[in-house]
Amino acid sequence: MKKYSFILSVAVAMLMVACGKSSNNGAQFLDNLGIDADQVQMLSDSIDVKIDTTLFHLNTEQGKALLGGIVPEWAEDTVDVEGVASIVAYKKLDNGVSLAFLWQEWGDGGSMYICSYDKDGKFADGMEFINWQALNQSSMEEGSSFFLNWEERCGGNFTPKGFNIHRVYKGMRTDSEMSDFVPQWTIEKKYDYKVDDKGKMTLADIQLTQIGKVPADVLTLDDLRDLAKTPASDTKVIDKLNQKAGAKEVANADEESKIFSEVENALGTIFERNPSGLLQWMVGHPGEQSSLNRFMEKADGFGVIDRDTFDEAVEQLADEAGRAYLRNLTKDWFKSERMTEDGAMEEEYYDDAISTVVYDEEGNPV
Questions:
Q1: By the 8 A CB rule, do 235 and 272 touch?
Q2: How far apart are CA 298 and CA 301, in angstroms?
Q3: How many CB atoms neighbour CB 104 within 10 A?
Q4: Is 310 exposed, middle or buried (0-12, 13-18, 19+ CB in 10 A)?
Q5: What span, in angstroms and rounded, lies between the C-alpha atoms of 352 and 221?
Q6: How many angstroms separate the Cα of 243 from the Cα of each of 18, 198, 237, 263, 291?
Q7: Which among 244, 248, 232, 264 has a CA at the least distance from the CA of 333?
């Protein structure tokens, strides 16, 4: 009898250890949505996530819960996200916060969102990495040379206080469809993120390395796109965008350029996530204190900011003087000329820069 009791005690202890191990390996944000952690890739020390058939596809309820905090439109009851949102992998940090690598499909590409969830499994923070793994090939002239405009790869590793993302971005060229691609320039960046006990993320540092002669407009555009890699909780993102927009190469950008469009897109994302915050910032930065007005004025050209939505947000501000200032400032805004003759919206392609420029062996435009 004593022997049987001993064996039973050992079995119970082993079961408790196994259960504890399983719970420790899992993540509360998955449990909250009824997702079996064994069906999702769990990362160890490295961040090696690929977009392949191992994706765990989310239903609408799960997609809204996991991505609604970083893609506000997905939090709406009328939005269906099934088939376009997936979990690529997850990681439970030592402080109890969980990170999820989430893939959103759009057109022929997509975006990787890195989101954090607190110990209760609730959304805490997130940022976007467009073109996590991407290739883009185009032809300069029909029937002649083919050129690979850009290649992008991301990976990284976890640290005691958060994680790092390593990104390699190459501009390449080939003289014929059958020849090898020749690198023209390479941008390498290392993004250092800290994650606190509540899941708030901070982009602590960006280390830049250039190989070859990177065109100035490529560097400018890539610098602007780093704003999307700033966590949503960063309250200084508007100030950062304002500073970048005031730089000569951005301030003087043509309205039809990708640089101009990138500033508009950044403003649209900021407005979507925090409309009152952007409007209050505008009230507090009148005249020459803002470098953003020139871009805001045209920001509805491709539906970046809707006029009616903007006006509704203005009227919700508590500051009467602020409302009057914005009404007067924007009365002639959002009158886009980017329409076809039949009134339809012109189509724009947000491919990477330098889609029609070829470089010699030294990286000079030819």
A1: no
A2: 6
A3: 20
A4: buried
A5: 9
A6: 53, 29, 10, 11, 7
A7: 264
Kindly state the greatest CA–CA separation across the chain: 92
First vs last C-alpha separation in the chain: 90
Give the count of beta carbons closer than 10 Å to the beta carbon of residue 201. Answer: 25
pLDDT at residue 348 is higher than 50: no
Most confident of 78-92, 220-234, 324-338: 220-234
Q: What does the radius of gyration of the chain's CA atoms come to, in whole angstroms? A: 24
CB 363 within 8 A of CB 182: no
Give 271-278 contacts, CB < 8 A, sequence gap 24+. 271/305, 271/310, 271/313, 272/72, 272/73, 273/70, 273/72, 273/232, 275/309, 275/310, 275/313, 276/313, 276/316, 276/317, 277/235, 277/238, 278/238
Retrieve residue 264's tokens.
Answer: 């508009």
- Tens digits of residue pLDDT in 130-174: 889 887 766 555 555 666 678 899 999 999 999 999 999 998 877
CA neighbor of 127 nearest in space, from 183, 82, 194: 194
Q: Give yes or no for residue 69 having a pLDDT over 70.
A: yes
In this structure, what token pair is assigned to residue 245? 């927009």
345 or 67, which is more confident?
67
Does residue 268 surpass a pLDDT of 70?
yes
* Cα–Cα distance, 265 to 350 (Å, whole number): 10
Question: Could you give the C-alpha distances from 307 to 265, 276, 313, 332, 334, in angstroms and in order?
Answer: 15, 15, 10, 11, 7
Q: Does 365 have pLDDT greater than 60?
A: no
CB 125, CB 201: distance < 8 Å: yes
Mean per-residue pLDDT for 46-70? Answer: 90
Instruction: Return d(Cα 81, Cα 96) in angstroms, integer.
Output: 28
Neighbours of 293 (CB within 10 A): 17
Q: In degrees rounded to 5, what are phi and psi of residue 20?
A: -65, -40
328: Cβ–Cβ under 8 A, 6 or more apart, which residues? none
Question: How sure is the predictor about 358, in pLDDT bands with cuts at 50, 70 and 90?
Answer: very low
